[in-house]
Amino acid sequence: MAKKQTKKVEVQEPYVEETVVVEAPKPEPKPIAKELPKKDTWEIKDRNYYLTSLASPLSYSIRSSGIYWFDEGKGYERELKHTSNQRTCFVDEFPTGSPERLEHIVFRGGQLHVPRNKQTLQKLLSLYHPHRNSLFKEHNPVQKAENQIDWLELEIDALNAAQSLDIDMAEAVMRVEIGSRVSEMSSKELKRDLLLYAKRNPGLFLELVNDDNVALRNFGIKATEVGVIKLSPDQRTFSWGTNDRKLMTVPFDEHPYSALAAWFKTDEGMEIYSNIEKRLN
């Protein structure tokens, strides 16, 4: 009897393609910036106040009630009062039914000293009172020193500018200050008065030095003084001094030499300026 042979057949499984989904890494959440609380710059110390007027009366009272301060945060005006028995100067913060013992605010000899334990009065005067920085000011030595430094630096700049100014520009600047009298001054007198003017009013001095119209106006005045050009009696017309030919008409309600300075910057005026300059030299 024949023996059956069993043949092992391997069956290959069908290929199945697998799709793998890879998730992108989630970005880390950005840290939320926390708003830092505003630093309270109020300093507890003795404070001094002074009246801004030059007068120093023996006693002077400022309003301590019936005054208001506009609160930006709340959006309305808040009533202020200075009392001896409340911890705030805002009336809407007074305890309900609490009595209000009003106190006067009195400057003696133009001065008022408020000790450090009077914080309610200090804040009323320094922060909220409607007349602060106009009727009275808080004495601030640091701010005063800064203002003095700014003034001294401005004064130095003005004196340096005055020292290096040529004689024509010096005459133009001083003519603004003292008028036609500048024509009678010697160069030494002009230089002296120029330096004194720069020291006395440095801001205005530097403004005049940097103003082109000042030099042009002075140029026109000099030309008129020596007769190169003429200004009509009604101050409405400039003309040549030799033949009365009209150069320009002064616009209504303008200063004649300011108008002439502006005209010198036009094309026609520049030609006339060169012609006048040759005649003056």
Structure report:
This protein has 8 helices and 10 strands. The chain has 281 residues and is an alpha+beta fold. The chain has 3 domains: 47-139, no CATH class; 153-210, no CATH class; 219-281, no CATH class. The strands form 4 sheets. A 3-stranded antiparallel beta sheet has the order 6-1-7, with helices on one face. A 3-stranded antiparallel beta sheet has the order 8-9-10. A hairpin with a 4-residue loop joins β3 (67-71) and β4 (76-80).
Number of beta strands: 10
Strand fraction:
5-15%
How far the N terminus sits from the C terminus, by CA atoms, comes to 151 Å
Low-pLDDT segments: 31-37
Indicate the multimeric state: single chain
Mean of all residue-level pLDDT scores: 83
Overview features:
alpha+beta, three-stranded antiparallel β-sheet, 281 residues
Gist of the model:
With 281 residues, the protein is an alpha+beta fold.
Topology summary:
Elements: E1 47-51, E2 59-62, E3 67-71, E4 76-80, E5 105-108, E6 111-114, H1 119-128, E7 136-138, H2 141-164, H3 167-178, H4 187-200, H5 202-209, H6 212-225, E8 229-231, E9 237-240, E10 246-249, H7 256-263, H8 267-280
Antiparallel strand pairs: 1-6, 1-7, 2-5, 3-4, 8-9, 9-10
Helix pairs in contact: 2-4, 2-5, 3-4, 3-6, 4-5, 6-7
